[in-house]
Every structure is written in structure tokens, then in C-alpha cells.
Design a protein that fits this description.
The complex is a heterodimer of chains A (264) and B (356). With 264 residues, chain A is of the alpha/beta class. Chain A is built from eleven helices and ten strands. Chain A is globular, with a radius of gyration of 18 Å. Chain B folds into two domains: 35 residues, no CATH class; 243 residues, MetI-like fold, CATH 1.10.3720. Classes of the chains: A alpha/beta (264), B mainly alpha (356).
Chain lengths: 264, 356
């Protein structure tokens, strides 16, 4: 089956939550994304892999429009979330980002208490009632497998947590706005192996409720945790397929070279 | 993001520092310069060479010269001297102020001096309460207006203004900070006083100079300090905070006022301390607009600030009058000490809750 056929079938079946269509992105004169057609399936983990500078992080950020703030950026094509174009004229980015949460490379909790970190998102979206906030904070921390570790110190500064805990706090913070898609930009690259393992286990749980897109430098990680993998090279999407299939029998020569460690 | 990098740097620090203690073996740098890779082997080798007094290998890190070269020692001494000079100046000033201002306060009586309502040197009445209150009113009034204005201006410069506009404005703000205070006084006399005079005339009590004029002038004078220090603080808030706020669906303004400005609060507090110091210590410009009547302060009436009496009366004062001016100096000195200590405490508190 061709990629196009697979895609059309998947969109029709309702498996695909999010897809990009002929997505091009320029930073000034640099053509950073060259006609990306990629689909993200609901309740699965999709890994974006590729060597540094291949455009995988840039592609991730187009999904919640975090590239908008970059100066001299130009985007054409479309990103479709549940049938709506993310780059449509009437789209409110704050609502979009509530639906498409993001976790960054290095843990970046705000210099506030654990509680206020989680409650930040709901608060800026107008939730004021203490009972509601308490409930959201607890649910988000449970969801990020952090509740038991911090439930007695919700008023302590978030920056007093360990690095791994901080990253799970950031995941909890993203969960608090009630997203459907979770974008993760190399979420474990600043963490030790044990914290990394915890986050990977967490992702396996989270995909029951969320669709996850993760950028990773680490091919073992992609193989361990993802259901689908997209391989980027020089701004192009070379191959996007089920992870087991791609790692066992890549269709493209370049993919094979990369995953067998011949470059990158 | 900055944390791991800082940590990395810290780990590396002992390497170059260890090397710096022995600057000589530049020729052997190929091996010794790699600092700390094989410290044990090198140390034993060097010790062996030292003990036996035998010939050192060509690439030995033990050069046989002084561990601390004389230049290093001399520079250490120079730095120490410079440090002591600053401390000595403060100590000397403290002793001098207490010695020359203390007796008069004791003679007039601390209560009559600090809380007396009449300053009339001819009748030997030396009460400075009106001046103390005027100084406090002018300083806090100025901070009250300048702080919110300065923060908004700093936010504009750091986050909202187009880069070119920001560059021009920043240059102007810096220029403003360097203008001599007498020039500000002229500005106040030519611009602020006539405006307030009109207001006073409308209200039926025209006077030359007022507390309001002093406050407005001080606002203009301390704004550049507050703006530039606050802007630096806002710009040094790590970008990932802003990214996180935006990614959670904040608007630009929400991310600025709910995350970035609070994260910069210790820097903003530092700017406020500097501004307060400048406001309370300013004499020349406020003399020109305040009216200098030593009466209890009211917004639209003339006031005399603590700083004003000394330059106004110094030339013709003598005896107890002159001593009383020393007393004012001592009072001002203590005031600034207290304000510095209190604000620094507050500032440190903000800093701790930010870093921990």
C-alpha cells in the first residue's frame, strides 16, 4: 500500500487525530520544512526522529503554533486537528494550545509553588474556584504519576523538586488544561536514566487518554516507546510508518542508513 | 536550560584554576595542560623529584619556581588595599558623622531634635520633624508613581517594542540617568512649577514650590534607574518560562504579567532600592522646586527636605546652628542606612523564594 493510500484509509477510519498537508516552513531564507505530509494517530505515541537540524522540532512546534513567535517565519500548507485547520484565520491560538499541550526539552517549571504551577493553565483560562482548581491539580498530578511524591508539599517551590520530578510536574501542568494531544520535545534529554525510565513508563499510560507526539534524539527510545515513527532528514519527511515495521524493514535507503547508525 | 550548563562549568572550574597556579610550564602544556587527567601519577612523580633533588623530567609540572609568583602576591595585596579603602571610607564617615552630629543632638535633646516642629536657627529652635516627614513623603510619593510607571516602561522596552524603537528608547533612558541633577532642577523650575502654580492659583493658595513639584521631579529623576534595572531583570528571565506560559495557552500579556514580571521581581526590587536611595539623597534639584519652608508637609504647600538645609544654610551658619546641620547630616545618614538594610532584606527574601 502506498503512503497516500494508508493515510486516506486511516483518516476515513477516524484513527488520525492530526495531520499535516504539504506543510512548508521558512525561517527567513532557510527552507526548514519541505512539504510535510504526516499523520498522528489518536491514542498512540508517534516519534519524530532524525539528525540534528532535520526539522523534527520545528515540525512539532507547527502543531501548536509555537513557531508563531519566531521572527521572519513563513508557513504554508495546513495542519488539521479534528477536521479544523490549525492555521485557519479564525483560530484562537490560546484555545488551540489548551487542546494541544507541550512539554519542553529541559524541565521549565515556573518559579512558583507546585500547586500554582499546575493551576496556572486553568487560571489563565478563567477557572477561579478553589474546589475546582484543587481537583484539577490532584487529577493532573495523579495523571503524571507525581501525586504521591508531592501531595504533602504542594506549597513548596517547584524548583526544589528533582529534575525528573520537575519534568513530570511540567507534564502535569500540561495535562491541567485538559489537552487531547501532547507534544513532547526531547522530554528526557536532560534527565538521568531512572527519571527517563519513569517518563517513558508514564507515556505508555498517558497514551490511553492522549495522543502523543515525541521528538527524540534517541533511536532506542523511539523503538521502545512509540507506535509510529516519522523519520526526518534535511527538512523532508523521508518515511512515516509503524515503528516495528520501520525498524525491521525500512522502505527508504536513507532511513536504513540512519537507524543502523551509518550517520547522524 | 541554563542549569546544567552552569553545573558543567562548575565541574570544569578546578581544572583551569589548578593550571593557573603553575603558569610556567607552557612548553610542557601538551601533557600537563590537560589538567587533572592523571593527577595521581603526576603528583607522585613531582614529589619524588622534589624529595630526591634529582633532575626533573622535561615535562614535569614541578618547575622548581615559586608556587605563587611575586606578581600574584603583589596583585593580591593591591586588591586587598582597594577593598579596604572602600570599607575604610564607610567606617571613617560613620565615625565622623557620629562624632560631629552626635553632640548637638544630645545638647538639644534627641526628642526635641527629631520630633521638634520648629526649625528656627535665630531663636535656637532646632526641630527637624517637618523635614523628616517631607523627605519621607517626597521619597515614597515618588516611588509610588515611578515604580508602576517604570515597570510598564521596562516591559515595553524588553518585550513589546520593536527592536529598533527599543534601542532608541533605551539610549534615551540611559542618557536621562546621566543628566546632572541641577539640570533636572531647571526643568522642574521651568516646567513643573508653573503648572502646579496654576493649579494652586485655581485653588486659591499660590506658593512658590510645593511637595507635589518635588515628587514629580523626583519621579522623573529616578525613572531611568528603575526602568533600566527592571528591563535588565525582565530580559534575563529565562526564555523557557515564556515558552511554557505560551504553550499553556496564555496570551502574550498574561505570560508577561503572570510569569515574567513575577520572576524578575528581585531585580525590580534592586532597581527600586537604587531609586529610593537617589530620591532620598537628592538635594540640588528639589531645593529648586520645593519652596524650602520648614513646615509640616502638605501636597500643595512648600516643603523643605532633610537634604536641603545643609546647602541652604551652611555658608552663614555658625556655632550650634552649624552643629545642628551636622545633626541633620547624621540623621540622613542613619535614614539611608535603615532604608538600605530594610529594602535589601526584602530583596533577598524575594531572591531566595525565586532561586530555591
Amino acid at each position: 500500500m502506498t503512503m497516500e493510500a494508508i493515510r486516506t484509509e486511516a483518516v476515513r477510519a477516524g484513527d488520525v487525530r492530526l495531520y499535516t498537508e504539504d506543510l512548508h516552513l521558512h525561517y527567513g531564507d532557510v527552507h526548514a520544512l519541505k512539504g510535510i505530509n504526516m499523520e498522528i494517530r489518536g491514542h498512540h505515541v508517534t516519534a519524530l526522529i532524525g539528525p540534528s537540524g532535520c526539522g523534527k522540532s520545528t515540525c512539532l512546534k507547527t502543531l501548536n503554533r509555537m513557531n508563531d513567535v519566531v521572527p521572519r517565519v513563513r508557513i504554508t500548507g495546513s495542519v488539521v486537528l479534528d477536521g479544523e485547520d490549525v492555521y485557519g484565520k479564525a483560530v484562537d491560538v490560546t484555545v488551540l494550545r489548551r487542546k494541544v499541550g507541550m512539554v519542553f526539552q529541559a524541565p521549565n517549571p515556573f518559579p512558583m509553588s507546585v500547586y500554582d504551577n499546575i493551576a496556572y493553565g486553568p487560571r489563565v483560562h478563567g477557572i477561579r474556584r478553589r474546589i475546582v482548581l484543587d481537583e484539577i491539580v490532584e487529577r493532573s498530578l495523579v495523571g503524571a504519576a507525581l501525586w504521591d511524591e508531592v501531595k504533602d508539599r504542594l506549597k513548596k517551590p517547584a524548583l526544589s523538586l528533582s529534575g525528573g520530578q520537575q519534568q513530570r510536574l511540567c507534564i502535569a501542568r500540561a495535562l491541567a488544561t485538559g489537552p487531547e494531544v501532547l507534544l513532547m520535545d526531547e522530554p528526557t534529554s536532560a534527565l538521568d536514566p531512572i527519571s527517563t525510565l519513569k517518563i517513558e513508563e508514564l507515556m505508555a499510560q498517558l497514551k490511553r487518554d492522549y495522543s502523543i507526539v515525541i521528538v527524540t534524539h534517541n533511536m532506542q527510545q523511539a523503538a521502545r516507546i512509540s507506535d509510529y515513527t516519522a523519520f526526518f532528514l534535511l527538512g523532508e519527511l523521508v518515511e512515516c510508518d509503524r515503528t516495528d515495521r520501520m525498524f525491521a524493514s525500512p522502505r527508504d535507503r536513507r532511513t536504513e542508513d540512519y537507524i543502523t547508525g551509518r550517520f547522524g | 536550560m541554563s542549569r546544567p550548563r552552569r553545573k558543567l562549568h562548575r565541574n570544569r572550574a578546578p581544572g583551569p584554576a589548578g593550571r593557573r597556579a603553575h603558569p610556567a610550564p607552557a612548553s610542557g602544556g601538551g601533557t600537563a595542560g590537560r589538567g587533572g587527567v592523571r593527577p595521581v601519577a603526576l603528583a607522585s612523580q613531582a614529589a619524588g623529584a622534589g624529595r630526591a633533588g634529582t633532575k626533573r623530567p622535561a615535562n614535569s609540572i614541578d618547575t622548581g619556581r615559586w608556587a605563587k609568583p611575586p606578581v600574584e602576591l603583589a596583585m593580591h595585596g593591591l586588591f586587598l588595599l582597594c577593598g579596604l579603602l572602600a570599607v575604610a571610607a564607610v567606617l571613617f564617615m560613620t565615625v565622623y558623622m557620629v562624632a560631629s552630629g552626635g553632640p548637638v543632638i544630645a545638647k538639644v535633646g534627641p526628642g526635641a531634635f527629631l520630633f521638634g516642629r520648629t526649625w528656627d536657627p535665630e531663636k535656637m529652635r532646632f526641630g527637624i520633624l517637618p523635614m523628616i516627614l517631607a523627605s519621607l513623603a517626597a521619597t515614597f510619593g515618588a516611588i509610588l508613581i515611578a515604580l508602576p510607571t517604570g515597570i510598564l516602561a521596562a516591559v515595553f522596552l524588553a518585550k513589546l517594542a520593536p527592536p529598533r524603537v527599543a534601542a532608541v528608547l533605551r539610549a534615551l533612558v540611559d542618557l536621562l540617568a546621566g543628566i546632572p541633577s541641577v539640570v533636572y532642577g531647571l526643568l522642574g523650575a521651568l516646567l513643573i512649577m508653573p503648572l502646579i502654580f496654576r493649579l494652586q492659583t485655581a485653588l486659591g493658595l499660590p506658593t512658590r514650590g510645593s511637595l507635589l513639584a518635588a515628587i514629580l521631579l523626583l519621579v522623573i529623576m529616578i525613572l531611568p534607574t528603575i526602568i533600566s534595572v527592571s528591563e535588565t531583570a525582565i530580559r534575563s528571565v529565562p526564555a523557557p518560562y515564556e515558552d511554557a506560559a505560551l504553550a499553556l495557552g496564555s496570551t502574550r500579556l498574561q505570560s508577561i504579567f503572570k510569569v515574567i514580571v513575577p520572576a524578575a521581581r528581585s531585580g525590580i526590587a534592586a532597581g527600586t532600592v537604587l531609586g529610593t536611595g537617589r530620591a532620598i539623597g537628592e538635594a540640588m534639584a528639589v531645593i529648586m522646586v520645593a519652596g524650602n519652608a520648614a513646615i509640616l508637609p502638605e501636597l500643595l504647600k512648600p516643603v523643605r527636605l532633610l537634604t536641603a538645609s545643609i546647602p541652604l544654610e551652611w555658608a552663614y551658619s555658625g556655632g550650634l546652628h552649624r552643629d545642628a546641620l551636622y545633626g541633620i547630616g547624621l540623621t540622613l545618614f542613619v535614614f539611608i542606612m535603615i532604608i538600605n538594610i530594610v529594602l535589601n532584606r526584602m530583596l533577598k527574601k524575594g531572591g531566595v523564594s525565586l532561586d530555591s
